[in-house]
Amino acid sequence: MLILVFACNEANRSEFTIIPIDVNRDVSLPLSIITDEITAIELEMTDESLINPDQIKSVHLFENHIILQERNKILMFNMDGKFVRSIGAKGQGPGEFSILLKLSIDEKNKRLIAVDHYKIICYDLNGKFLFQSSAIFDTGKRVYDLNYTNDGMFALVDQIGTKTTKESYSQSQLFKMNDDYKIVDSLIIRKTYYEQLEFFGFMWNDLILHSNSSSYVFCPDHSWQLNKVAKKTLPDTLYRLENNNLIPELKLKFKNYGFLDRDKSIEIGGIYRSSRYIFAVYINRGYFRFCYDTRTGKGYNMKNGFTDDIHQIEKQINIRPFATNTELFYYWHTHMNADDLREEQNPTLYIGRLKK
């Protein structure tokens, strides 16, 4: 068995980068500052490929294809936006899913991996169902993310349990899996005890991210502590996954944050980085996005998202990283005007490459 090591001692803590965030600032960041080029791809609309923008969960690039995950379907397009096929179906049978919580790419074995509440389902790139596994889904466990990295396939899982009649806990674990998606090792990242516990549903599923040279893991706390005892620690650190070690990479430091009750807390939904930029999304009486340029040392705190000054989209947008290449990001926008309000239309997918 491979051994996962949680490399986080006091020496590590003093060496990693601390990124300051002033929650009282609200600025707009034009995308032209962080990227030179953004490609717009019109996604073909057919009877099978009609997309509900409000239900898009993730987008992936693999083998010159775009793979889009909705709440209840998986759609594949070519790089010109032409519809290729749908994959899987909603249901309870083999190869079927109830609600798609996560879609990932197994680059090594050229597979698509779909996760619902009860199982992991594996397909080939032609959409053929290969097999499924439920080994990771014990009572009370919930898969937050699953992705293939330099070190293999990993799943980030949270489990809620009860220690005593008056005390509950939330336990976050990282599981390593083999090519059959069976567990070969595990690591408890954090275990937090609460006098009262309520599951907090805000999630950003991009938590295990991979680029050409590095893989990163962010472990959020998706639970609320309902009593008025302040949290001792904030899950505010991004870890680098290297040789089965979790190594602290960077920490977000919020200015004047408090954790006395629900109304005053900050909940971080995700952190990721490219070779140059660091991004985060968090809740502080509303949704905020944050971008930090490691070259200039300048941070941008945005309440309403980024500004697309390249394609002149009036609405502010929210970018997402590609899970297997954090140098690329994507977002989507549905273009409607007075002449075509009565016509259904698929959103346009935008793909940008970050500056280095």
Please characterize this protein's 3D structure.
By secondary structure, the protein is mostly beta strands. The chain has one domain (14-354): 6 Propeller (Neuraminidase). The chain is 2% helix and 51% strand. The strands form eight sheets. Strands 1, 2, 19, 20, 22 and 23 form a six-stranded mixed β-sheet that branches. The two termini are 38 Å apart.
How is the topology of this model organized?
Layout: E1 5-6, H1 10-15, E2 17-21, E3 35-42, E4 56-62, E5 65-70, E6 74-78, E7 83-87, E8 89-90, E9 96-97, E10 102-106, E11 111-115, E12 120-124, E13 129-133, E14 141-149, E15 152-164, E16 167-177, E17 183-194, E18 197-199, E19 208-210, E20 215-218, E21 223-225, E22 237-242, E23 245-254, E24 267-273, E25 277-283, E26 287-293, E27 298-302, E28 320-322, E29 325-333, E30 348-354
Parallel strand pairs: 1-23, 2-23, 8-9
Antiparallel strand pairs: 3-30, 4-5, 5-6, 6-7, 10-11, 11-12, 12-13, 14-15, 15-16, 16-17, 18-21, 19-20, 20-22, 22-23, 24-25, 25-26, 26-27, 28-29, 29-30
